[in-house]
Structure to design on (218 residues):
């Protein structure tokens, strides 16, 4: 069955095995390349240890560092089960994401359309009221069942039905300026859709508070 937004179709088990072999090689090559780049970047930063940057340059460097995301989730226990993986993107964990009054993680609409929806099969309908069942992994590889769906009335794409339990288990609290990195991948053995999340505390990058006249949801 074809994926949404894709021209490719599954043909045979042999093709699937070949594709999986290529995915393993691609992931291993990507990991090697990222490690090499990380070592090079660490050497450059170490050489700048005693260099005083101008404020504008420091802000630029911070922005450059923040935009570099691992191509696949850097979670050791997932290395053997990650099949096809989406491009990663960042999400600021807002008040509503980490509030006990809500039970959902809202995801950037443009990022979901660009990176996640093309990986879904035709029968995986996020616009259905029931959504689709997914497994979400935290930074330690612990799994939590959730629902991925679209809220048509608010045009939000969300992970819910398990999100509150998930963020509570990791001690995440609102107003603590967390930035999450989000990946969606197909499980190598079951082909089921999965999400992986890591995060960091970064108050420097936190967006400015919105004015009271701005009623748009985050």
């Amino acid at each position: 069955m074809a994926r949404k937004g894709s021209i490719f179709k599954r043909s045979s088990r042999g093709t699937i095995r070949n594709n999986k072999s290529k995915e393993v090689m691609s992931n291993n090559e990507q990991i090697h390349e990222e490690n090499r780049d990380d070592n090079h970047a660490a050497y450059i930063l170490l050489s700048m240890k005693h260099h005083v940057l101008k404020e504008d340059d420091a802000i630029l460097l911070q922005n450059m560092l923040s935009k570099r995301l691992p191509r696949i989730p850097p979670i050791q226990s997932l290395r053997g089960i990650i099949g096809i993986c989406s491009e990663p993107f960042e999400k600021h964990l807002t008040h509503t994401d980490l509030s006990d009054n809500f039970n959902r993680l809202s995801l950037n609409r443009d990022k979901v359309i660009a990176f996640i929806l093309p990986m879904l099969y035709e029968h995986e309908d996020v616009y259905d009221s029931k959504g689709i069942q997914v497994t979400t992994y935290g930074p330690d590889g612990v799994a939590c069942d959730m629902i991925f769906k679209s809220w048509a009335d608010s045009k939000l794409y969300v992970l819910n039905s398990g999100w509150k339990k998930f963020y509570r288990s990791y001690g995440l609290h609102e107003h603590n300026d967390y930035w999450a990195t989000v990946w969606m991948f197909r499980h190598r053995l079951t082909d089921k859709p999965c999400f992986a999340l890591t995060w960091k505390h970064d108050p420097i990058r936190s967006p400015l508070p919105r004015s009271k006249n701005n009623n748009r949801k985050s």
